[in-house]
User: Fold Carbon-nitrogen family hydrolase from [Kitasatospora] papulosa.
Amino acid sequence: MHASLIQMAVNPDESVNSRRERAASLVAAQRGADLVLLPELWPVGAFDYTAFAEEAEPLQGPTHRIMAKAAAEAGVWLHAGSFVERAEDGTLYNTSLVFSPEGERAAAYRKIHRFGFDKGEAVLMGAGEELVTVALPETILGLATCYDLRFPEQFRGLVDAGAETLVVSAGWPERRRSHWTLLAQARAVENQAYVLAVGSAGTHAGVEQAGHSIVVDPWGEVLAEAGAAEEVLTVEFDPARATTTREQFPALKDRRLGLAQRRLA
Assistant:
C-alpha cells in the first residue's frame, strides 16, 4: 500500500474555510495513493479551545462535504483527520471521518480519551464510547486520536476487533515529542501492527506542534518519519506483514486475561 500522511500546519491568519479548501487541494495532490491521512482538529487547531464552539459543525457539515468530495476526486481512502462535531443534543465531540475512494463515509470515530484533565478538551467535549475499525481491501484500520495513544487497552481492543493497521490522527505538542515517538513504537510492537501516526505542524494557540509524523512496522521499526514543518510523508508498506509477524512470533496468543486480583495487607 502507498500511504500519504499530510502533516498540515494551522496558520491562525488562515480562515477555516480557506484551510478546508487547502486541505482538499493537498488530498487531491495525492492521487495514486491508496490511503491518505490528515491530522487532528486541523480546521481549528487542537489547542485553540476558544474556537471549538464557534466552529463546531454537524456531522455532515462543510468539512464532511469537502472531504468526501476530495476523497472521490483523488480516488483514495481518506482518513480526514478530525473536526469539532456538534451533535444533535448540542454536545461537542472530537470526531474523525474516513471516506472511501467513491466519497462515501465509511466511518466516524469520536475520540474516547479527551486531553486536558480539568480544562480544555476534557471539559468542552463529550467522550466517544465506541471502538471503530474500517475494512479496506488490503487491511483493517483501527482508529485512534492523539491522547488515545497513551492508553494501550484501546489498541488491544482494536486488535481484538481485527485491526492490523492502527491509524492515529494527532495535534501533539513539541514539548512531549519524545513520548509521541516512543508510544507509536510501543503500540506497534505490543500489537504486532502497523502504526501510521500523523501530527500537525505550526503553533496552535501558542502551543508549538511536534510534527514528526511517523510510520512504524509490526516489529517496531520506523519506516518513515517527517520533520517539524508542514510536509507530506509518503511510505510504501505491506499490510500482510502484520499477519506474518503474528504467525512468526505469536505473542498475542500468550495473553492471559481475567486473572484474579488479590490485595495484600
Summary: Residues 177-191 form the longest helix (15 residues).
